[in-house]
Amino acid sequence: MKKIVILFYTFISITILGQNSLEQTSSDTEIKIDFKKFETQFYKKKETSQKMKGNISILLPENGLIKFILNENDLIPNRIASIITFDGKSEDGKFSMKLSLYNNRLSAIIKTYQGKYYVLERSGISSSDHYRIYSLSEAMKKEAFICSANVEDFLSKTHDGSIISKSVTNFPIGSQLRKYRMAVAATGESVESLGSADAVLNEIVSKINAVNLIYESEISVTFTLISETLNKSILFTNSATDPFTGTGGSAGQAGFVIMNNSGLLTYNKYDIGHTVNISTSGGASGTAGGQPCNDSSKALGWSNWGTQNSLGFVTNLIAHEMGHQFGASHSYNATGGDSPGDTFCANSWSSSGAVEPGSGATLMAYGTNCSYPVDQRYPSDNYESYFHARSLDQILNRIQTLSTCYTVVASSNTPPAANAGADITIPKNTPFRLLGTGTDANDANLSYTWEENDAATANDKGAFGSTLNGVGGYTAVSSATAPLFRSVKSNINGERYFPKLNFILNNQNVPPMNEGEALPNVARNINLRLTVRDNNASNGGIDSDDLNVTVVDCGPLSVSYPNASGITLNANSSATISWNVNNTNSIANTVNLFLSIDGGLSFPYILASNILNNGSYVVTIPNIPATTKARIKVSALLNPNVEFFDISDNNFTIASACEAFRSYISPTFAVTTYAGSAIANLNMTGAAAASEPFSTKSIIFNAPSTNSAIHGYSSADNVTPISFNDNYPTHLVQFRVTQTGNYTISKNSGFLITSVYTATPPNLSGFLTSNSTGAYYGVVNASGSTRSVVLNEGTNYFMYLCNFSNPANANTYTLTFNGPGMVYETINTPSGYNYTYIAVNNSTNKVEAIHPTADFTVLPIGSYTVKGLSYINTASPSSFIGKTFNEIVAMGVCVQESSNKRQLTITGVLSTADIKKTESDIKVAPNPVNDWLTVVSDKNVSEYEILDLSGRIIIPKSKFHNSIFLKNLSTGSYILKLFDGHHIIYKTTIIKN
To answer: Of 886, 907, 928, which closes a domain?
Structure first.
């Protein structure tokens, strides 16, 4: 099998700025695929009946180059010549794909382990090898459709109560995949617009293949196309003679009735029907309802789009309309439309589904609509490709009670288990924080979504935030029933602040209306739902758990001192912290006082614990480093995972002689080993002193020290790095990142070459990425953003900037770093301070061991958090053992923890009996090994994994085939793990020659 070569470059839109310099802007990422080379994998296999396999590597904007293993899927039960569909899974199992191969092109939809979707399709460039990749949510920001479905109207006629919200007894799902036979018909207008039935079939197959990824991930449902669609007998070629009169879901159902009566397509041949209408006139819309498996309504689905609409947009359109067919109603709570006279948002509002404030953000919402007469859209993340908890309830209830004609496909996935915690009581108009948890036997990539599950009443219709009245004449914050909190796309830690932390820190406990983050101003109940997704690459597993929040008529809790701007407090001095209780002591009789020195992003210092919630307490400001970004938090801890709180509105200053420095340790990956193992010696070097982290940086281009050669990409192929001329000054920014991942660096405006290197001065061998293309002594183009590149924590990077001014022209630029972490600069380490590492017992929060290079081989069995510690050299580190961090601070020691951490787990050693039993069951040879390691086992072995002695994964879990190829490993010692399913059955050390 030949290796696939993927070339990529940023889409160029050029504006001339001056001689030999061009600026470009970009929204999509352009990649070049050698299609003929890709297709050669399948030439000889097309004539066989065996399922085809292959691979492709795709550069994802935020994740880098990902290799996918492709397997032909069952969307097309019996292969046809014109189009082939594949399931793709990344080598590490974290990414999934649906790929369609047809008509000398391919298209694909990709899901990352974070739950984000990307779309790959051919671009508008004439060359057939040029493709663009973009996020699915971005596609919805550029295009919009109108859905006139009224699911309640259908339900009232059929007496179907499945749309009513059910409890979480529908969950978990994901242990099996439910398959429906799908009939997709096309109007004669579709064939007339595209020129042939084959072209329409390609459109249908590629779109339903993409929809399958969403439905398999979200509700463990998949669709297979029936032969009448695939043989084009229901893809009509003449608009005058097709069976469809008018448009919309009812027209679609009527057409399917005609096909049944004529014998063209009888009801017993399909479970769900859908009609597509493709036009050249533009615009998109849909109408759907009905019920799969019910002959009288199972084809009540209709999607209309134009030839210019993107794959991503149409995928979401069809997924939305099919959601209606499975009983999901619109989930937004908005009125109006998009222009004067529009009422479609009001007309399609759902009394049983209006759980998202404003126009909403999830699949069944109206995220990019409802902008007139008042804009009810969210300013960001306003169209996401997942179902709201209410939609999941409605769909799963329909599937499990009425639409039961599916067939079951076996799945090896085990669904996750969600735990939202116990019900709580909080005061009104007071921020609160929730932490949900989840477990899963076979997936580590869990993501968590907290959502409100309160449907607006008729009088709540259109009530939004604290400023927009609904039909009843009141705002959402003044309602006892209106939805307040938007759905926020999944995160990986199960935590959510209400409202978002950035609003609280910006003195906006009452955020702007369009944010969908409104705290209640009256007593009421709020029903919250935690949904945990396992993001399994084969089919998704989901579980949900409810948490009821009772809001009582007291509060808000609010900090009163220090709260104003311009306050300075001294370290090692007393201060009176005060807050407004407002009867919140009726809920929580005690509170905790915390101190932040980074503007409220973290609160590592405990000033007081479990003190009376009476409004005032005298604390000692500890001997901590000086800061101008101190904040106070007053917190009432209701249980370990829930608090209501307030944070002071403004930063204040702490004057201090303590110079213990901020730091970021590296690496941060978790390590698991047995007691006494050498692997517990983490062998870490002292971390550098760090500046405050930032994501944006302003620079004035007036102090370059030298004229340096700077590099970008050759305009000949947009791939090869080349050197531009060196007759101009350059500006250097040295930085590190707080978290490993893919980053881009963008500028606000103006011509500026931005190139990043691993070394200084800049050279081709150290070149990493740039925003520029051009030729030596030729025209140079500078886009708005660099290409995505993986940056590693703990590594120095050197960013050289050049605007071709000589002498430097003192222009000001704002640079934005986009990635999973933030950016910092290393600074000089203050004299008189040392650095060491501590292992904190996770059960007691006390320091168990301390060592300057993190040698923790002495630790007993347990779970530990490893942190760095800068401290004044007059202190004795041994005195830290057995104390919490705050107890160390209370000793008066000048000390500062690292801003990040890593986990270390120490397990027991196998008993002699277990070792002998394992040795008798499994043998590996030769050891040491050169190329191939053979495993002989009496046990079932499904997968293997190779780690280095620090616990870092070198070869991720891979399918086991008796022999393991290790030729490409570097010389050294490694750990081999063998698995039976998801259980480790054998672990040993191997030596690679």
So the answer is: 907
Q: Is the four-CA dihedral 288, 290, 292, 293 of positive or negative sign? A: negative
Mutual angle of helices 197-219 and 311-325, in 10-degree steps: 60
Verify that 747 and 782 share a domain, yes or no: yes
202: enclosing H helix or E strand: helix 197-219
Structure tokens at 258: 């005609």
Reported as type and span, the H/E element at residue 199 is: helix 197-219
Q: Is the dihedral of CA 962, 967, 971, 974 positive or negative?
A: negative
Residue 157 has pLDDT above 60, yes or no: no
Task: Please report whether residue 665 resides in a domain.
Answer: no
| Domain membership flag for residue 663 | no
Sign of CA dihedral 575, 579, 581, 584: negative
Q: In what order do the strands lie in the sheet with 64-72?
A: 6-10, 29-33, 130-135, 117-122, 105-111, 96-102, 83-90, 64-72, 53-60
- Cβ-count burial of 399 within 10 angstroms (0-12 exposed, 13-18 middle, 19+ buried)? buried
Gap between the Cα atoms of 434 and 431, Å rounded? 10
Pick from 702, 558, 565: nearest CA to 634: 558
Q: Which amino acid does the sequence have at 194?
A: L
Alpha-carbon span 893 to 871, nearest angstrom: 7
Q: Are residues 516 and 439 in the same domain?
A: yes
Reported as a single tens digit per residue, the pLDDT across 726-783 is 778 899 999 999 988 888 899 988 889 999 999 999 999 999 999 988 876 667 888 8
- Domain match, 210 and 331 both: yes
CA–CA distances in Å: residue 553 to residues 427, 432, 477, 638: 6, 16, 13, 17
How many CA atoms lie less than 13 Å away from 95 in the CB half-sphere? 27
Q: How far apart are CA 826 and CA 49, in angstroms?
A: 60
Total structural domains within the chain: 7
Rg of the chain over all Cα atoms, to the nearest angstrom = 30
Same domain, 529 and 573: no
- Asked if 41 and 102 sit in the same domain, the reply is yes
For residue 974, give the CATH number of its domain.
2.60.40.3080
Range of the domain at 965: 912-992
pTM attached to this predicted model: 0.83
Residues 789 and 925 in one domain: no
Average pLDDT along the chain: 88
579, 611 in Cβ contact below 8 A? no
Does residue 152 form part of some domain? no
Neighbouring-strand partners of residue 993 = none
Q: What is the CATH number of the domain that holds 806?
A: 2.60.120
Q: Give the Cα-Cα-Cα angle 146, 390, 415 (nearest 5 degrees).
A: 120
* CATH number for 632: 2.60.40
What's the gap between Cα 490 and its chain centre? 6
59-93 pLDDT tens trace: 887 777 789 999 999 999 999 988 999 999 998 88
Strands of 932-937's sheet in order across: 922-925, 932-937, 963-965
Evaluate whether residue 320 is within a structural domain. Answer: yes
Element (H, E) at 204: helix 197-219
Ramachandran bin of 355, using left for φ above 0, alpha for ψ from -120 to 50, beta for the remaining angles: alpha
Integer Cα distance of 441 and 535 in angstroms? 13
Q: Would you state the structure tokens that stand for residue 696, as one six-digit string?
A: 């944006």
DSSP 8-state secondary structure symbol assigned to residue 855: B
CATH number at residue 268: 3.40.390.10
Residue 891 and residue 945 in one domain = no
Using CA atoms, how far residue 630 sits from 92, 598, 624, 637, 926, in Å, is 42, 6, 11, 21, 60
Q: Which of the listed residues 790, 824, 858 is the one where a domain comes to its end?
A: 824
User: Each residue of 86-141: pLDDT tens digit?
Assistant: 999 998 888 999 999 987 889 999 999 888 899 999 886 555 778 888 888 876 66
* pLDDT over threshold 70, residue 619: yes
Residue type, 881: I
Same domain, 862 and 770: no
Peptide bond into 625 cis (omega under 30): no
Residue type, 720: T
Residue 954 and residue 822: Cα distance in Å, rounded?
26
